[in-house]
Structures are given as C-alpha cells and as structure tokens.
Write a structure and sequence with these properties.
Blueprint lengths: L6 E4 L2 H15 L7 E6 L3 H10 L5 E10 L2 E9 L10 E8 L3 H9 L4 E7 L12 E2 L4 E4 L12 H4 L7
Parallel strand pairs: 1-8, 2-3, 2-5, 5-6, 6-7
Antiparallel strand pairs: 3-4
Helix pairs in contact: 1-2
The structure holds 1-O-pyrophosphono-5-O-phosphono-alpha-D-ribofuranose, guanine (GUN) and magnesium ion.
Amino acid sequence: MASGAPRYYTVSWEQLHRDSKALAWRLVERGPFRGVVAITRGGLIPAAVVARELECRVIETVSVVTYDEERRGEPSVVKPPAAAGDGDGWLLIDDLVDTGTTAKLVRGILPRAHFATVYAKPAGRPLVDTFVTEVSQDTWILFPWDTEAQFVAPIARSAGGAAGG
Ligand SMILES: O=P(O)(O)OC[C@H]1O[C@H](OP(=O)(O)OP(=O)(O)O)[C@H](O)[C@@H]1O
Ligand SMILES: Nc1nc2[nH]cnc2c(=O)[nH]1
Ligand SMILES: [Mg+2]
C-alpha cells in the first residue's frame, strides 16, 4: 500500500460471500480444475466458497507470511503446497493482491496455476488471471475477520457540540 493515511474499504461477511461467488462465476468456464490451492490465511475463506461453487473437493494450502498488521516485511513461504506440482490444472486463490509480493512468490512455486483473487490493487493486478473488484492502491481492505462492531459516538458530540437544535 502507498504511504500516507489509508482510506478503508470495509467488507462484510455477506459482501465477501457475494464477491467470492462472483469470482466463482468467472472461474467456472476456466475449469474444471484438479484442485484449489488457498494462499493462507486470507485466501482460505474465498477458496472455500469458490471450491463449493465449482464442486471441487481437493484443497491444498500454501502459507506465506508477508505483513505484520499493516506493515510489510520480508515475505517467506512457511508451508509449501504438499501436492499441486507446478500448478498445472490447479486454481490458486487469495483474498487480494496488493503490491504483488505474495503473488510473485507463490507464482514462482506454481507457475502454471490459474491465479484468482477477489480484490486487486493496480500494482498487483497484472499478476492475477481473474479477479472481481479493483480498489485504489491507497485503499486498505478491511476484512470481517479483522474487524468487529463497536459503539460510535453521536455526530453532535464528535463535532464539538457545534450542531444546532
Ligand atoms: O500483494 P501483497 O502486497 O503481497 O499483499 C497481498 C497479501 O497480503 C495479505 O496477506 P498477509 O501477508 O497479510 O497474510 P494473511 O493472509 O495471513 O493475513 C493478503 O491476504 C495477500 O495474501
Ligand atoms: N487486510 C488487508 N491485508 C492486506 N495485505 C496487503 N494489502 C492488504 C489490504 O488492503 N487489506
Ligand atoms: Mg494473505
């Protein structure tokens, strides 16, 4: 993500389900696939939804650690896929592509996989074969597993009592 104050794009469980199903609609004509490889952890939920829609029962994982909350570190593969070979016939899924760092690393392991994400930012977009929604590079996508509902002060209070009545 670009430096500076991020704008946020908040995704609910319902929207994620809807967007993951939209991804499945785009992928159905690209299959059938031998199996799905989810890039953990963010790719796990979209991969489950897509696998259900494509009636795909074989699920693999590849685990990449890149970010510590919103700070980016050195990417490392902490668990390679046990099966999937060079990715031929496999569908590789992540929740999003941002800088493309994770995608480059995993595409190096599975160069022949079809790579799909639900969301894409411009810098990583060229690395993705199929995606649903593009957001700007300075947007931080907030997923439902990273957020919770909480109390918000009334507008009048946060405006310093400026509201008339
Ligand atoms: O294109 P990039 O700049 O590499 O960013 C995209 C990656 O960042 C997030 O994963 P993260 O590393 O936060 O790990 P997580 O999926 O375990 O939450 C997201 O799920 C993508 O995998
Ligand atoms: N949750 C989340 N993780 C990310 N990792 C890289 N970019 C993002 C983003 O926009 N949102
Ligand atoms: Mg991830």
